[in-house]
Structure formats: structure tokens, C-alpha cells
């Protein structure tokens, strides 16, 4: 069983990493606009240091990014030339509701995304839309405290109602929240949380988690009511934790790490909190802030499919801290795998193992929503990059994706590699951590012409799509 004929090949972008135009078109200030490039970035991402407004001496990469706001027609034309079947993008919440709590949506923002979807349709590209991708209006942070405030559920419900109604017939595939499990470690970036010194951070984080999970279920309910054709999924930062050894303590440590992340999709797919998480809450003297009909909303509005990002597996070792930073998560060493420059292990087989683990757990269709290699590309004088290393990485992962479909029989809807054009790294704020098939002339300090140039991988991925994954060599 090969890839189905309507398999959704494509690429994935996020507004906060590519869009720019932060003060244009009526858009309000977002949390991504105050994440600086440099030494303070991680502490601000995690909510340890407050940054409520940009300060002049710092550079904020998301404010300009690669200026997709003005270049989207050019960029989508390039994706169309590659033969994309789908393009994953995200909505900048503050472009629709500049303050998050506005009475009426911003028409200019709504029209911007409508034009993007129309441009996609021109090239027969199916939009896949993430409603919230590390994006929250700063007014909802400063005035309400971010997602630890239950009022954000109603603001999010208002957002999704507007989106589902406006884009009916234009968008079929939706994701509620990007990498929902990362909100525990990247609290400000993913949930708009900033902590006071004496604050009970455990309570604040899991209050926010509950509100996001309830909001996600409301999005499923509202989306299905407005258009029964809508397919609404969740999105997990995936990649198994392997035990460091067969010592039962290491195996248990890996199980505990994996459960921390599956907790989110357990609720979104099964409709209730798992028992192991309830026990953890009890040990931490935490009570889930159930209100109104939260339990019914969660139970009756589970997602249609499970999407996930996969870059790497990780390793858990009992009674030790991970030393390698793997996409905002820590890992112990893995002597069997090579490592890319930013601390992720390169593990193609781990993709298949992870996919089987997720499907065994949920029996829902899968979607590989992110997979890619960040590298320091060196363009020639014409901007051309001979990125065989990227082709090799993607080829090896698509091979095991094919095995997951053909040998394991997994139902997989699509594959959107991250990111098809160079963009700002969400973790480091760098441009030099490049993923794309298309080179963008921009450096880590925001200097450059923004010229787009095809890399060697551009033609390779074009052939992969044209042959529906049959031709992977280069």
C-alpha cells in the first residue's frame, strides 16, 4: 500500500516566524514581537524574565521575519512550482483581534488570510491552518495574565467562530494549538505566562493547560457545527524518549517523560484526563479547575486526527538531568545516533517508531505536520545552496514514513516539512538555522535583501511530490 493518490505533500510555516508586518494592517502587538534575539531569549520564552514591550537596544526577529506579509504571492508561487498539495500556515491572533478582547474583528487581517487562501487555491494547494501557533495578543498577557485566566477560553471561542465562518469552503483542515505540550516548558511563548517570585508555578501552568484543552475542545465543537466538512486536529511535539539502558529505572524514567507529553493528546483524543495525570495532580495538591460543562465539552468534542512535529527522539536516564537541548526539551546522550549542530539527534527510524506508538495509543489518522533539518547553509555568489545534507535527512525520514504506511498500515493524511522556505527559528531567533528549499537573504541581525533563491533541495522535493514519494534519490 503506497501513499494514497490524494496524500497531502507540502510544507509548514508559522505566522510568528515568517509573516512580519507586525505593525501593519491593523495588527496588534503579540508575544512573539517581544521575544528578542540574543542571551535573554530563553528566559523570556520560559516566563522567567518579563518582557511586555520591545526595548530599543534589542532586535526582535518576528517583527520583520522574512516578510511573508508582503511576499506571500511570490512564496506561494514557488510552493506551487514545487507541486505542493498543502501548505500549513498559522493565524496571527492579533491580526484578527488586535487586543484579543476586541468587540469586532479586524477586517484587514481577515482579508489578508482570505487572500492567502485564494492564492493557495490558484495552485491547487489545500490550506492547513493552525489557529494558534505560539501566538497570543500581548493585551491578553498584560491585562488577563495569559492562558491561566479562564476568560481566554471565551476570547478564543470568539476567534474560532470568526475564522470558521469567514473561511467556510476555503479551509477544511485545521489544528487548534501548535505543539500543545511545549506550553509547560516554554510558558510565555506558548501560553503567555509570566511568573511572580512567590507564584505557585505548577498551579498557574496547569490552570493554563486546562483552559487551553477546554478551548481546543470548544474549537472542535464550533468548527463541526459551522461546517461538518471541517477536519480538526491536535498538534503534539513528538519524538519518543528512549530509556538510556534496560535498567528498569531508566525504562520507568522514559515512560514518565513520554506520559508528560501524551497527557495533552490523551485529553484531546480520549476526552478526559488520564489517571496517571490525576495522580500527579493529587501529589502536587492541585485541583483541576473544572467549571460549567468542561467535562462534557472535553468528552464530546475529541479531535478528528492527530498531527505532530518530529525532529528527533530523546533519551531519559533515571535520576539525572538531560544535557542536550532538543527543541526546548532535554535529553541524555544517545551514542548510537549522530547529532545536528543544535543538539538534536538524527533518527529517521525514530519517526516510524513514534508514529506507531501514537497510532497504537489513539487509532486516529496521523499527519506529520513538521519534520526538517536546521543547518547553516552556505550560498554561492548567486544565492544557490547545494544542500545534499538536507536532502539526505528528508529522504531518510520519508523512507521510514513510507514504511509506516506500506508495512505498518498506518493511516497518514500528509507530510508538511518544516519549513519550505528559510524563516526565523522559534527557539533561538536565528535565521542562520535554515530549513528551507528556498534561501532567503537575511542574517541573524535582520540584515539582507530578502531575495528568494531555490536550493538544490527545491528540485528534489518537487520530484518527490510529482512521483507521490516513489522517487527519493538525488
Automatic annotation (TrEMBL):
Pfam families: Glyco_hydro_1 (PF00232). The keyword Hydrolase applies. Keywords: Glycosidase, Hydrolase. It comes from the Bacteria. Coiled coil: none annotated. InterPro entries: GH, GH_1_N_CS, Glyco_hydro_1. Belongs to the glycosyl hydrolase 1 family. This is 6-phospho-beta-glucosidase.
